[in-house]
Each structure stands twice: as structure tokens, then as C-alpha cells.
Amino acid sequence: MQFGRENVRALEGDLVRERFGLPGLAYVLSRGWLVWPLAEVGEFGEGIVHGAEAIRIAEGSITHSPVWSPRTILAVFTSGKGDLEKAISCSSVTSRSAKFAASRISPPGSPPTWALAYAVSGRLAEALPLLEQAVDRATSMGLVTDLALRGRPAGRGLPAGGASSRRDGLAKRALELSRKHKERGNEAWVLRLLAEIASRHDPPEIETAQDHYRQALILAEELGMRPLVAHCQLGLGKLYRKTGRREQAREHLTTATTMYREMDMRFWPEQARQR
Questions:
Q1: Which pLDDT value is given to residue 10?
Q2: Is domain 144-275 annotated with CATH 1.25.40.10?
Q3: Nearest to residue 31, comparing CAs of 4, 60, 10?
Q4: pLDDT by residue (tens digit) across 28-66?
Q5: Which end of the chain, N or C, is more open, meaning fewer C-beta atoms within 10 Å of its C-beta?
Q6: How does 52-79 read in b/e, with b if 16+ C-beta sit within 10 Å?
Q7: Are 121 and 85 in contact (CB under 8 A)?
Q8: How many Cα atoms occupy the beta-carbon half-sphere of 207 within 13 Å?
Q9: Residues 206, 196: Cα–Cα separation, whole Å
Q10: pTM of the shown model
């Protein structure tokens, strides 16, 4: 993030409208991509400022490509924070303007982000096809970097039945790719996803879920990924509550709720109260 912030500062002033051979304004792209790591570490206040400014400059320019809209990255940001309707709205606007379904160049992050927001908000039938589309497109285009990220929302919000084999396959593929290409942040997210999948099996695979949650938690803490740390604490709390380990459940759920409130992630504390 240090280099991202320095890059934004270097492009301010007379260089704001320059492209430097990029598919869009360098200043817009720099601010837009800075939003992503800020979301990963829970710096949502700063992320909103960068995202809003990137959108303002991009939408006031006739030279910035709509395919690389900062709304795409802002959708990643808002879905991570839990502002699901805003995430869907941002992804939808980007998708329509770029016509990514008919293009070889799709907005980075948009389909998996849209899928994630749909899944968490309960629109499950719409989530998985978008995710599969994103993974297939990335594979056909030879996009290796962040392919694991495109697969990580596969099981978020999805029940154990029905599409479980498709969901499990996407998640395991994402874990394999994240480890192969040493994408440790994505590995942590996918481990958390696998933990949720195991916890939703009938009957729940308690030991597998616990192991995946703890692996994800270790990685997330090491990388400073506070939202993911909170999600892992939430998952462990729900898992322990399900198995009757009430004291441990209370400890993890309290930690998760405190972290969510500190980061102003208002959607998630309610999840800690649900049985």
C-alpha cells in the first residue's frame, strides 16, 4: 500500500489526465487499485476516499476507458465491507458500460464481486453462474494472477445441497492455484471458504472446518487482513456454538463482533447473533 499511496501522490497535479500508454488514466487506475488492498486490511475510510475520487475523475474524462472503471474496484471494496446493494450496483453499472460478456477484456474483479454480493444477500441462483463465468474467462485468457480470488466467493452464502459439487470443485481449484502461484492472501480467503463449506456439510465436518479456519486465521493475522481475521473468528464461533462448546463460541463471536464494529462493517455483527 505504501507504493500505491506514493504512486497516487506522484500523479497528482498536471499528470492527473495522463494515460502513459495504459488503458485508462494512470491516476484513476492508481487510486482504484489502491482501494483493493485497503479493503483487505480494513482501512475502509481511506478506501472510500480513493474510490470516490477515482470515479469522479474517470466519469469526467472522455479519454478514460469504461472497461477499466474504478466502480469495479469499488464493488470489491463495498462487498468486503458488507454494503451489498452498493456492490451489486457498482458491478452492474460497470458490466453494462463495458459489455464484458461480449469482450475479451473484462473489468478486473467485477464478475466474482457481483457473485459474492449476490450470494451473501441470498440471491444464490444468480451467484454461481457469474463465478463460473469469471473463472472460465480467466482461464481462457491465460490470466493466472488472482484466479484464486475469482474462485474464492464460490461457497459464500451457498447451502450444502444442490450445487455443492460445483462449489467444492471451484474452491479446491482456487486453493491449488493460490498455493502454486504463492498468492498467500488469496490462499487465506480460500481456506476460510473451505472451512465454511465443511461446516455446512450434512453432517458438518467439524475437524476439517476447524482446521481450515485456523489455517486461514494464522495467515490472515500474519498479513494484517483484519476483515478476514474477523470472518474466521465468526466462523469458529458459529462452529463451536453448533457443537455445544458455548464458552469458546462466546469468546470467538465477541472478538468478531468487536472487530466488525471497529471497522464499521455493519452487516456482519448481525451474522454473529444468528443461530
A1: 94
A2: yes
A3: 4
A4: 889 888 988 898 899 988 988 998 888 888 878 766 555
A5: C
A6: ebbbebbeebeebbbbbbbbbbbbbbbb
A7: yes
A8: 0
A9: 10
A10: 0.79
